[in-house]
Amino acid sequence: MSRLVLASASPRRRELLGALGVDFEVLPSHIDETPRPGETPFQTQRRVTHDKAATVAASLVDPTRDVIACDTTVLLDGDMLNKPEDAAEARQMLTRLRGRLHEVRSCVVVARDGVAHASEVSSRVLMRAFSDDEMEAYIATGDPFDKAGSYAVQHPEFKPVMEIRGCPLNVIGLPLCRLRGMLPELPECGDVCARYSGRDCRANLTAPVRRHR
Questions:
Q1: pLDDT by residue (tens digit) across 149-179?
Q2: Is 79 a catalytic residue?
Q3: Which of 87, 90, 194, 195 has CA 20 to 30 A from 204's CA?
Q4: Rounded to an integer, what is the distance from CA 9 to the centroid of its chain?
Q5: Which of 23, 71, 143, 200 is catalytic?
Q6: What distances in angstroms separate CA 158 from CA 10, 49, 103, 189, 212, one per listed residue?
Q7: 203 vs 6: CA distance, rounded Å
Q8: CA dist., res. 14 & res. 24, Å (int)
Q9: Both ends of the chain: CA-CA distance in Å?
Q10: pTM exceeds cut of 0.85
Q11: Which of 165, 154, 148, 156 lies closest to 206 in space, CA to CA?
């Protein structure tokens, strides 16, 4: 039995954690992520991530296992852009994001030996000025519907992002450098970051990652 537990159903988080070559079990929390009245986007994100970790940790027979939870959101003009419910909402989000700079923010929680350790990572993302036809073709693929903000930075055809300022793996959904700081026994992640962004993660801390069509 693996010591690590990923409290997420996200295929991107499974892919990124798996790229480190570590053994882990996936146990999604299935909690209600609806914002509560009066909560700011940051408060919702912190609460949801802590609840994910706590729910899964409480379900484990072995309380010494490490539970990793993460929540990533897209923020624009003070609004939290979550996963779209339909094509119309995806179109609305992508139209708002087009050609603009926005924030992608992740909250990471590691529940270890009954204690929850939290960390937050923020990246700035500049979208390219994609055309309406490109946007409609992307929506037709169905890819936006399980993505916060209705897009995947790594989509091989749409390629919506012009530049990332900060951690690119944060934008994909799991900032491995920050996670490794919380679980130092994890392997080095520089080669994983380079695979996704073309640059070692340590370099990404000081220089923008430019993406091209």
A1: 999 998 999 999 999 998 899 999 999 999 9
A2: no
A3: 90
A4: 12
A5: 71
A6: 20, 29, 20, 26, 11
A7: 27
A8: 9
A9: 43
A10: yes
A11: 165
